[in-house]
Amino acid sequence: MVMATQRQLRSSAKTRALHTEDVLPLKKPRRAPASTEVDTEPTKTSSKKSKPSPKRVPSLIATTPVEGPQVLHAFPELVSGQLVQRYKRFLADVKLDDGTVVTVHCPNTGPMVGLLDQPMAPVQLSVSSNLTRKYKYTLEMISVDDVWIGVHSASANRMVETALRNGWMPDVAGPDRRYTSLQAEVKHAKGSRVDFVLESVSTVDAQDVQNIYTEVKSVTLLLPGQGNDGAAHRRAVFPDTVSTRASKHVEELIHRCAKSSTDRAAIIFLVQRGDCDSFSPSMTHDPVFAALCREASEKGVRLHAYACDLVPASRHVVLLKSLPIVHEDAGSKC
């Protein structure tokens, strides 16, 4: 009986000890050093300060030209029709093949000289998948004398970028050089951006690196005439009206070449038609621009012209060839 009582006492003591441990205050954790504390309070910033723009990272260029058809652009869908009229610079009325007349976006702010003379000219429209867009269709091509001509001015930049990335315009780098990377929309003058900056490396000396500041111009106008040999000649020209903006771009490139020994400049004229033999800065339509182009070529700015072929059947725009550049005032090639 006494032994049972002792067992009960020992059991009660253990139970009290367990309960006592349950209610003991927890030991406070050591406070982290001040240098490792994380501030969870949000930092207040002034609403007036704008967020920094993301850094533009140059993209690499194909080390060897991509083989196969040199497709600059492939349209997901094209709709054919006839041009009724173009008005308010950005709008056009087009009669579709089913007889419906629709208003479409015209992505060319210029006068489109030589493209609007033929009544009810055949056209090709791209189709937007954006349901909230006001105009479903965009005017992309127009046919003049059975030649398809691209009228989307902004698409020239995208197509030239494709050609540069695929190594299809090696002449832009210059003799014994190749370009290795490309950066788009780079600020290089007050209130102005250049279309592309290419990094060019010498094939002889890898330490010889240059930046090529490159502007792109979309060309649509053709002037028939005669070549130096008297034969019929079809020359593409730019611009088709006075363009102070284009002249400003040329002046900026001249200044860029003059102020830096490692910077070069180039202008790429993308002729969005395949029926031309050469290209000229137009002395007829903008003598100031033509004179600046001549001055630029003499001061180190390289001028390049390329023709492309637009094929509605395949919905492709294909790079055709490089065109010789002729200065109209002197008839000399550069």
Automatic annotation (TrEMBL):
GO molecular function, one term: DNA binding
UniProt-listed CDD domains: SfsA-like_bacterial
Polar residues bias (residue ranges): 1-14
Parts of the chain that traverse the membrane: none
Domain annotation Sugar fermentation stimulation protein C-terminal: ranges: 156-311
Record Gene3D superfamilies: 2.40.50.580, 3.40.1350.60
Stored InterPro entries: SfsA, SfsA_C, SfsA_N
Region: Disordered, residue numbers: 1-60
Domain SfsA N-terminal OB, first and last residues per copy: 84-151
The organism's place on the tree of life at top rank: Eukaryota
Database matches in PANTHER family: SUGAR FERMENTATION STIMULATION PROTEIN A (PTHR30545:SF2)
Name recorded for this polypeptide: Sugar fermentation stimulation protein C-terminal domain-containing protein
Native source species: Aphanomyces euteiches
Phylogenetic lineage: Eukaryota, Sar, Stramenopiles, Oomycota, Saprolegniomycetes
